[in-house]
Structure formats: C-alpha cells, structure tokens
Structure prediction request, 373 residues.
Amino acid sequence: MPIGFFPAPEDETEQLTQLRRSVREFLLRERSSGSYTPWVDTWLTRWDTDFTKKLANQGWLGMTIPTEYGGHGKTFLERFVVTEELLAAGAPLAAHWVADRQIAPSILKYGTATQKHTYLPRIASGDISFGIGMSEPDSGSDLASVKTKGVRVEGGWEVTGAKVWTSGAHHADRFIVLARTKALDTLNRHAGLSQFIVDLTDSAVEVNTITSMNGSQHFNEVVLNSVFVPDDHLFGTIGNGWEQVTSELSYERSGPERVLSTYPLLEKGLASPHRRAFLPHLARVIGLRKMSFAIANALARGETPDTAAAIVKVLGTKLEGDIAETADRVRLDGFEELCSMVSASVLQRPGFTLRGGTTEILDGIIARQLGLR
Ligand SMILES: Cc1cc2nc3c(=O)[nH]c(=O)nc-3n(C[C@H](O)[C@H](O)[C@H](O)COP(=O)(O)OP(=O)(O)OC[C@H]3O[C@@H](n4cnc5c(N)ncnc54)[C@H](O)[C@@H]3O)c2cc1C
Prediction:
C-alpha cells in the first residue's frame, strides 16, 4: 500500500508539509523493516509499546506539552499532522493514544504542579499509559448517574465501584476514574462528581478483560474494591468532575481518529477496480478533515468547541462505518490480509458510533445548541 495517498491540504504551510514528509518517511522505513502491518482502528486495538517508544524518540508524543514538562512545545496543528499521518498509515497507536490525546491536556489544565512534573514527561517519553474510567455497567450515555463512590478517609479517598468498556486497562498503568463524592442531588445531577488517578496495578483493583465478538480483547471491566487513593492522586477539584470530563471529551471527540479509523481500507479500495465506489468516501474524508483541523485550531485558541466536535464525530464515525460497508459490499478481495481487514472493519463498526458518546447523544447535544429542543 503506498503511503502518501492521504490528501494533504493544498494550502498547508511549508513547515507542516515538511513535518508530514518526515512522518511518511519514518512510516515507510518502519513498514519496510516489518515493524508493523497497516491495520484498521489501530488507535484502539493495536497496543505496541515498542512502536510508541519509537514515536517518542522522534518527538511525536507529548508534542503540545510545554518543554518545562518534558514535552516539545509544539502546536495542536503540528500534532494534528503527525496523528493523521499515523492513522492513515494504519500504524499501531493504542499504547499511547489516550494519554497523548486527552490525559496530557487534562493534566495541564487541572493537574497539580506535582502531577504535571510526574506524569507529563513520562507521557512524552512513552513511559506511562492511561485508560479512561468513565463508563459503568448502568452509566454510559447518562454519565452523571455513575455509582462508583469516593469516600473521604484519612490521607485520601476510598474508591469503590466498577467501570466497564475500559479500553486498554489490561495494559495501562493508570486510569482516571470518575466517582461520586457527594450524594446525588436530583436537581443538580452534575454536582458532587470528582476524578481520581488510580494505579491499575493496585492490589485492590481487578481488571477483567472482555472479549469482543471478533475474539479480540481490548476493553475491560475494572472493579475497584475499596481502593485507597492518596490525596495527591485526587485529580482536579473535588466536586468539579463534570466540568473536567466534559472538557476531556472535547479532545476525545474531535480528532482525526473519528474520521480515519478505516482509512487504510479506503486507500485499498481506491487502488482497486472498485475505485468509483470509494471516491465519494474520499470526498467526505477531505471535507471532514478540514472540519477536524478547524477544531484543532479552536482548541489551540483555548476555546471549547463542543458542538463542532460532536458534529465531526457524528459525521466522521458514520463515514468510517460506510467505508467498511462499501468494502464488504464490493467484495474487496484478492489478498487474505485484505479480507481480514474488511471483516475487522465490519466487526469494529458498531463501536465507531458508540465510543466517546453515541450518535443519538451527540445529536441531542447538537440539537440543544441549535435551540431545537
Ligand atoms: C469500542 C469501545 C471502547 C470504549 N472505551 C471506553 C473507555 O475506554 N472508557 C470508558 O469509560 N468508556 C468506554 N466506552 C464506553 C462508551 O463510552 C459507552 O459505550 C457509550 O457512552 C454508551 O454507553 P452505554 O454503552 O452504556 O449505552 P447506553 O447509554 O445504555 O445506550 C444504549 C442506547 O440507547 C441510546 N440512548 C441512551 N440514552 C439516550 C437518550 N437520552 N436519547 C436518545 N438515545 C439514547 C444510545 O444512543 C444507545 O444507542 C467504550 C465503548 C466502545 C464501544
């Protein structure tokens, strides 16, 4: 598969084009040395700590983290160019994805000075990984209904409950848990929530892997059996958990991974005799990447583009699924590797529109913003 088909914007600055070129050259070298095989949905399903370390050595992790915290002080746009090239090439990204995408900016925004100095350099060097501890068995879309509790004890908090669908928790070092630290107030359901940094290797934490319908294992149930979380692992401010997770979700919803999870398959389709069937999808990719890029710009300006991020996620994840469906329909066969890539895409498809907030929930957010509800 030729890397480089990805349609870079015509008006890109020379500096970004040069960066894009160096990522492609790196990827070509890695592919030809057999270090990875392009695949779909690699930011969730391909955990490869060696590859993550190689990216860190190139300076492509923690790009937007300030240099005083061990990062590279680059812009969101530079990070955007690097991540879209990595995604389009189907490189293995899961080992650092959550930490690099949302935990680093959250720590910068809400972490203590000690947390910044402890975690940010290790995120930039690819030496620590994180999971997201939001969803629970009965709390997904309605996140404010989480039942995991944080109870004040001497020197910290005792956290008890169960999280579910925690991607990568069986490999990750830490996850940030959303818990209720004050009884639910039905008139203000978003109050009384807080976040804690929990060590996934703690003996009071049980990680039970969930097997997906395609037999793969990437997400988990995580049971917290009265885990002691010291005060310095409280994340942000007690009672401010809702604002913090909402801010985190802006980073989670708007990036190029909400458009490009099946791009390696689209690239195969465009190079096949069925090219015409895939061209409309390419046009959609080009439009959506502009929108996603604009959101990266807004985030860089310190804005919170929640509605725009929701729109990109709804449209982008639909496109990802449509690429899988087209490939399945035209029977993009010829190579065994390609057939399994098509079936992996089809089986991953239901997750595209669920993870990070379902389409129905995002439709609601968009409608409210437009004053339609
Ligand atoms: C691949 C994958 C990875 C994930 N990784 C993580 C992770 O790492 N960490 C984490 O915390 N979570 C993770 N999740 C969980 C994900 O965030 C939830 O699945 C999602 O928020 C939906 O919650 P739910 O599964 O409980 O479904 P529910 O909330 O029970 O929803 C079921 C259905 O009802 C619809 N629905 C619910 N409420 C409304 C409403 N008010 N209006 C209209 N329709 C509604 C939904 O759209 C959905 O179709 C992951 C999920 C997937 C699929």
